[in-house]
Amino acid sequence: MTSPLALLGGTPAVANSGPHFTWPPIDDITRAKVLAQLDSAVSVPGRSGIVADLEDALQDYFGARHAITTSSGTAALHASYWAARIQPGNEVIVPAWTFHATASPLFHLGAAPILCETLPAGNIDPARVAELITPRTRAIMVTHLWGKPADMTGLTALAKDCDLDLLEDGSHAHGASHGGQKVGTFGLAGAFSLNGPKPLSGGEGGFVLTDDDDTYYRILTFAHYNKRARKEIPQGHPLARYAVTGAGLKLRIHPLAAALAHDQLTRLDAYLAGREEIAAYLTRELSQVPALEVTPVPEGVKSSWYALTATYQPDQLGGLPTDRFHEALVAEGATEFDLPGSTRPLNQLPLYQHPSHPSYLFPGYPNTHSRCRPGDFPIAEKAHTHTIKLPVWHREQDLDLAEQYVSAARKVSEHHKELL
Ligand SMILES: *Cc1c(COP(=O)(O)O)cnc(C)c1O
């Protein structure tokens, strides 16, 4: 007897072969805007032209006093830590499960990322943060994993009580909000990526939001030396005399990336509204599939739906391993189902396990933090190994594709015995 499963020779559940999800959406208006930029300026050293337009639009959208563009999200995070005066020997509490760039810039500042256990849904657990605070702790960094805001009520109160700076990595979560407030605006600074697949994309790029003037001048010093720093840092400010060189790095966004991001920002709310509809459909339908559990978004929380995540429960399918279940989904043509690769518990990464040896990435860096062995963060690690994620479409016409993906999941689940 042949199996209906595509992995075993059957007909795939998803009719066309894809790609099924491309990002960012680019139309003729986008093309015209980027081409116009190509003709007007491909280098913008000051806060003028498309860079000023994008920063103004970001300030309006987020309701922030300052938005400063950078060359990447990694650069935005690095600048934010430096602007927050993170120094050698300081500790910064970071989620154990995030993309590594949330915390990796700390190695360059001689500071220690202190990994913190997450809640089963992936965001940092405020109760665990409280347990990790020491006299060396200077700040808490929060990622809003897959676009779902972390518990900002608990984290804001904790940071305030303990006199720590709260920093955010909003790279998955442009436009997401908690209690009506957009993420990236809760603490001293919010850093964002504008990289390819992110909810707001310039292809490459990043930005930092802050309401604090001094933090703004520090970020200019870190990322925008010479013309811009000279023009914007007031005479008499202690950093003004460093304006020509800044701190030695130059981390500006490319004007063509700024033009793309500027175009995309005008559409962001429409993207998010469309995703909300399809995410509601996927949440409802995938929850009905035995073996998949989709946690609903709590009241008062709005996700950007960078990804919809389901927790796979192998015991529901006779112990069928996650990767075998995933392989069967992909064979069904549901190729956008993905097991998170680079966004993984940081204690599993060599950079975090051995920052100073054996290959001398950071010679002399103190190997003080012992909690970087596999198994040190059982909740985050278990959640990571059982997570299957899916990008969320935003156009009504993609609902048909979403339905085919649901059928694929149902089919693999129904016929799982053939894979055991
Ligand atoms: C993408 C990403 C970054 C890094 O941004 P780049 O623009 O690629 O440098 C940092 N943190 C998170 C959570 C990300 O998803």
Please trace the helix and strand order, writing H or E for each element. HHEHEEHEHEHEEEEEHHHHEEEHEHHEH
Biggest sheet architecture: 7 strands, mixed
* Largest sheet strand order: 1-10-9-6-5-2-4
Tell me the fraction of residues in β-strands, as a range.
Answer: 5-15%
Chain-averaged pLDDT? 96
Distance between the termini: 16 Å
Query: Total domains, how many?
Result: 2
Bound molecules: pyridoxal-5'-phosphate
Shape: globular
CATH class of the largest domain: Alpha Beta
Total count of strands = 15
Structural class designation: alpha/beta
Using the CA coordinates, give the radius of gyration: 22 Å
Please report the number of helical segments. 14
Looking at CATH, the homologous superfamily of the largest domain is Type I PLP-dependent aspartate aminotransferase-like (Major domain)
**Helicity range of the residues?**
25-40%
Give the CATH topology of the largest domain. Aspartate Aminotransferase, domain 2
CATH architecture designation of the largest domain: 3-Layer(aba) Sandwich
Low-confidence stretches: none
Model description:
GO terms for molecular function: pyridoxal phosphate binding; transaminase activity. 35% of the residues lie in helices and 14% in strands. It starts with 27 loop residues before the first helix and ends in a 6-residue tail after the last helix. It has 14 helices and 15 strands. It has a 7-stranded mixed sheet, sandwiched between helices. It has 2 domains: 28-265, Aspartate Aminotransferase, domain 2, CATH 3.40.640; 268-419, Aspartate Aminotransferase, domain 1, CATH 3.90.1150. With 420 residues, the protein is an alpha/beta fold. It binds pyridoxal-5'-phosphate. Residues 72-74, 98-99, 101-102, 143, 169, 171-172, 193, 195, 206 line the site of pyridoxal-5'-phosphate.
